[in-house]
């Protein structure tokens, strides 16, 4: 497995200098260059002098397929000075999304208080992954919230669907023992995207397959493709709720038998704990694909 320091350095490069969090980027090579778009009119009117701040706002304006996507950090008029004397601006997210020329998300504002569901006045910064993952139904945006110059991050996957509905999934980057690793990021993101696609009013087989092909071997992807949220072998429950992704716990992978134990709680719900074991297939770049799922040593899913 990767060493913690290496992983954190990679994550810092992916998410920007403001937070050196453990955040994963969901790549999609169909992303258009942002220079081809003018961005939104609100950003064009921004006259803020950003030279006074240690951190600068990021912007992403892109077209992927028939999606037009604008993700901007913007100055909300507040700032703070951290102990080393640097002045940081507070930048919430503003998101605008269109699909086929029709507005899906309009001026959606997301702050760290929105993400954490906490009204306390903390000194926290937002950053987002510039490489979006997009399917026919949904735009997925990776967002990190953390204090400046630290690794103490909260990671989220924001999902904006074509029907205008938005969902937030907590993405863990630590194993059950507290060690930082890329495996929890991949597993949590896979569970979130797969469950989210299955939960669509009209699930799109091509969108589901795109998620499966990103994280699974061809054999396992074909095995999961026909399934729904009901009695799905990945979830081992009569009907899986996407909210349960937020309770996922990832255990230290076993690189001898190439497996990784995953557990979640049916909360909200009866609170029971369900565990599965993912089979892994190693790739050349120290990454893994998921190659199957089985019970953790029992004939039925383990619960307590």
Automatic annotation (TrEMBL):
It comes from the Bacteria. Residues 1-20 form the signal peptide. PROSITE patterns: PROKAR_LIPOPROTEIN (PS51257). Keywords: Signal. The lineage of its organism: Bacteria, Pseudomonadati, Bacteroidota, Bacteroidia, Bacteroidales. This is Lipocalin-like domain-containing protein.
């Amino acid at each position: 497995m990767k060493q913690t320091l290496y992983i954190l350095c990679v994550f810092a490069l992916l998410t920007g200098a403001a937070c050196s969090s453990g955040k994963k980027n969901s790549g999609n090579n169909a992303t258009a260059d942002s220079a081809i778009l003018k961005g939104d009119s609100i950003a064009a009117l921004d006259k803020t002098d950003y030279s006074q701040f240690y951190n600068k706002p990021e912007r992403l304006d892109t077209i992927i397929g028939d999606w037009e996507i604008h993700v901007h950090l913007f100055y909300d008029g507040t700032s703070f000075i951290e102990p080393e004397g640097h002045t940081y601006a507070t930048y919430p997210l503003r998101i605008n999304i269109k699909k086929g020329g029709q507005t899906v998300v309009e001026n959606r504002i997301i702050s760290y208080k929105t993400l954490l569901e906490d009204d306390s006045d903390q000194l926290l910064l937002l950053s987002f992954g510039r490489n979006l993952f997009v399917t026919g139904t949904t735009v997925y945006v990776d967002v990190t919230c953390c204090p400046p110059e630290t690794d103490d991050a909260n990671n989220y996957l924001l999902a904006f669907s074509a029907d205008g509905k938005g969902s937030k999934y907590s993405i863990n980057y630590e194993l059950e023992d507290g060690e930082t690793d890329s495996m929890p990021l991949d597993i949590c993101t896979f569970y979130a995207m797969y469950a989210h696609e299955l939960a669509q009013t009209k699930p799109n087989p091509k969108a589901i397959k795109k998620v499966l092909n990103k994280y699974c071997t061809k054999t396992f992807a074909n095995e999961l493709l026909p399934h729904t949220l009901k009695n799905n072998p990945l979830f081992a429950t009569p009907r899986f709720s996407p909210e349960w992704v937020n309770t996922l716990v990832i255990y230290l992978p076993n690189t001898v038998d190439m497996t990784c134990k995953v557990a979640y709680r049916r909360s909200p719900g009866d609170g029971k704990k369900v565990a599965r074991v993912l089979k892994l297939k190693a790739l050349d770049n120290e990454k893994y694909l998921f190659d199957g799922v089985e019970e953790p040593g029992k004939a039925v899913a383990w619960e307590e």
